[in-house]
Amino acid sequence: MLEIENLTLKYGQSQILNGMTLSAAPGKVTAVMGTNGVGKTSLLKAIAGRHPYAGGTIRLDGKPLAHLGAFQAARAGIAYVPQGREIFPLMTVTENLEAGFACLPRADHRIPAEIFDLFPVLAEMKDRRGGDLSGGQQQQLAIARALITRPRVLLLDEPTEGIQPNIIQLIGRNISRLREAGDMAIVLVEQNFDFAFGLADQFFVVQRGAVKMQTPRDQTTSEAILSAIAL
């Protein structure tokens, strides 16, 4: 279980997160919804150790993570797929995947067959440079690289942005497969409402850096979520 309690974060003098509290359970997709600029990406960066937070607590299985940096967060089991993908353009697909080895013990320095089962195109293009891939292929590579770290928490920031419909469907199916495995908590930030609503088990609607609405999927409707986002 990932637990976020009263998280605050600033950029300079600007307060971005204002007491953010939420949780994400293994075998569930937790969607963080809201308009642009409400702090969704900042939340993921704080969890992933990419940006320091000012106050509050991040716990994994009840253990505080205590302001870890990105490397320590990855070692703890948190994988982050950033908006924009951030693949290494001059490295091959294989080399990009192997970058995920950095936080693993040497005995685990291998690319599991399951990666290519989820994303077959990566096996076909394993010797191609990351910068030569299409946007959809790069997104698959970014998710696969995160999975190399054997995460307990997978953070996905806008995974469908700029992606063609058939790849969006593939990513959605793979998120469902990862959820069904039951051992990973998936936190999804996504502006594609239909994609997020179709996958999520629970929703947190964010406004002004705090949770405005929290609800499980079976106790809400798409209209209620959209209304909460719009207000």
List the SSEs and their pairings.
Elements: E1 2-11, E2 14-24, E3 29-33, H1 40-47, E4 55-60, E5 63-64, H2 70-76, E6 78-81, H3 93-98, H4 113-118, H5 120-124, H6 135-148, E7 153-157, H7 165-181, E8 185-189, H8 193-199, E9 202-207, E10 210-216, H9 222-230
Parallel strand pairs: 3-8, 3-9, 6-7, 7-8
Antiparallel strand pairs: 1-2, 1-4, 4-5, 9-10
Question: What do you see in this structure?
Answer:
- With 231 residues, the protein is an alpha/beta fold.
- The chain has one domain (2-88, 152-230): P-loop containing nucleotide triphosphate hydrolases (Rossmann fold, 3-Layer(aba) Sandwich).
- It is 34% helix and 26% strand.
- The chain has nine helices and ten strands.
- The protein has helices at residues 40-47, 70-76, 93-98, 113-118, 120-124, 135-148, 165-181, 193-199, 222-230, and strands spanning 2-11, 14-24, 29-33, 55-60, 63-64, 78-81, 153-157, 185-189, 202-207, 210-216.
- The chain has a six-stranded mixed β-sheet with strand order 6-7-8-3-9-10, sandwiched between helices. Strands 2-1-4-5 form a four-stranded antiparallel β-sheet, covered by helices on one side.
- The protein starts with a strand and ends with a helix.
Rounded to an integer in angstroms, the radius of gyration calculated over CA atoms is 17 Å
CATH class: Alpha Beta
- What structural category characterises the helix and strand content? alpha/beta
Q: What is the residue-averaged pLDDT?
A: 95
CATH architecture: 3-Layer(aba) Sandwich
Number of helices: 9
- Helical content band: 25-40%
Q: Whole-Å distance between the termini?
A: 30 Å
Per CATH, the superfamily is P-loop containing nucleotide triphosphate hydrolases
What's the overall geometry? Answer: globular
